[in-house]
Amino acid sequence: MKSTFESKPTTQVAKTMINNNSPQEWPEPIVRVQSLSKICKDSIPERYIKPLSDRPNPITSCDHDDANIPIIDLGALLYGDPYTRASTLKQISEACKEWGFFQVVNHGVSHELMDMARETWRQFFHLPMEVKQQYANSPKTYEGYGSRLGVEKGAILDWSDYYYLHYLPLSLKDYGKWPAMPPSCREVFDEYGRELVKLSGKLMKVLSINLELEEDFLQNAFGGEDIGACLRVNFYPKCPKPDLTLGLSSHSDPGGMTLLLPDDQVTGLQVRKSNNWITVKPARHAFIVNIGDQIQVLSNAIYKSVEHRVIVNSDKERVSLAFFYNPKSDIPIEPAKELVKPDRPALYTAMTFDEYRLFIRLRGPCGKSHVESLKSPR
Ligand SMILES: O=C(O)CCC(=O)C(=O)O
């Protein structure tokens, strides 16, 4: 597995990264991929061409067969008898261990709200460029309209633009950094955020119970009411050479848990399973849930934060909404004492999420190198 930090002592890398503050500016002028998509007819700029080993490969990509991440009906948790409830908990537990990913249906979030949130964002990306440019982001906080992750000069870039905003903590929520257009968007995104915080809270209880911890364990470890929540909306324009690039490079999510609302028409998300990439087939009105690095650490690697990436295509654009549910940024996250045993010692040293996410803010998406670098020295 690719690791950017493989050759260096991990704790040293972590410390170096932490001592550097986030840079204020991008290292090169920003090019909007949406604009490129309009002018590139048969080729793409070299900056977007991935090395051979990272390109989508039909031999290792399984989108033609039945392989899919598990689809789990959450209805039983609310309304089911003890037997179906236990069976749902078991399905979630197995999905967290085997896949790090699952889809949930009957999750309690209104389908109308889901469709409205996605379509409102789609409209945002179709606004004139001068409107979107008013929200251009910087690597300091990443909030706003962006076109790259990471600040390495000369890095190979991904074929996507995005919009990033904060819901929680309230001290970081700033409507001035949210788009004002389309007119209803702040209202829609507010309600969407509220509903997803509620759903995430329920899932945190399920995960805690499945780990045989107190039901509020994970929530409390995340800081109780003081958690962080943010949204990255990904926009993947059409690409004339989809076999040469990626919409989003392979990465694991640095935060706690992610609830993804995928495009309802176009697939693109691929999840790593051993040496294969499984293309997710989204169920209608499902959320795709995945375990992030912080829950991998808290669960002492019982649950896996799994690598995923996004492929693009030549005739359809794609939109996805990734909602990140994260620990309070300044509390140390380490394996739960209850999950540390003589035959399973603590696999990770403690680190705050503020310290941890500097990795991804500086380097951009790069496999599982972030969580691997946290491993306790042995
Ligand atoms: O677009 C997708 O389906 C996945 C997005 C994703 O992995 C992310 O935003 O971290």
Automatic annotation (TrEMBL):
Q: Name one Pfam family in it.
A: DIOX_N
Q: Provide the reaction this enzyme catalyses.
A: jasmonate + 2-oxoglutarate + O2 = (1R,2R)-12-hydroxyjasmonate + succinate + CO2
Q: Name one GO biological process term.
A: regulation of defense response to fungus
Keyword annotations for this protein, in alphabetical order, are: Dioxygenase, Iron, Jasmonic acid signaling pathway, Metal-binding, Oxidoreductase, Plant defense, Vitamin C
Instruction: Tell me the superkingdom of the source.
Output: Eukaryota
Q: Which InterPro entries match?
A: DIOX_N, IPNS-like_FE2OG_OXY, IPNS-like_sf, Oxoglu/Fe-dep_dioxygenase_dom, Plant_2OG-oxidoreductases
Gene3D superfamilies, per the entry: B-lactam Antibiotic, Isopenicillin N Synthase, Chain
Domain named Fe2OG dioxygenase: which ranges?
A: 226-327
GO MF annotation list: dioxygenase activity; jasmonic acid hydrolase; L-ascorbic acid binding; metal ion binding
| Entries under PROSITE patterns matching the protein | FE2OG_OXY
Q: Which cofactor does it need?
A: L-ascorbate; Fe(2+)
Does the keyword field hold Oxidoreductase?
yes
Family assignment from sequence similarity: Belongs to the iron/ascorbate-dependent oxidoreductase family.
Name of protein: Fe2OG dioxygenase domain-containing protein
Q: Which organism is it from?
A: Crotalaria pallida (Smooth rattlebox)
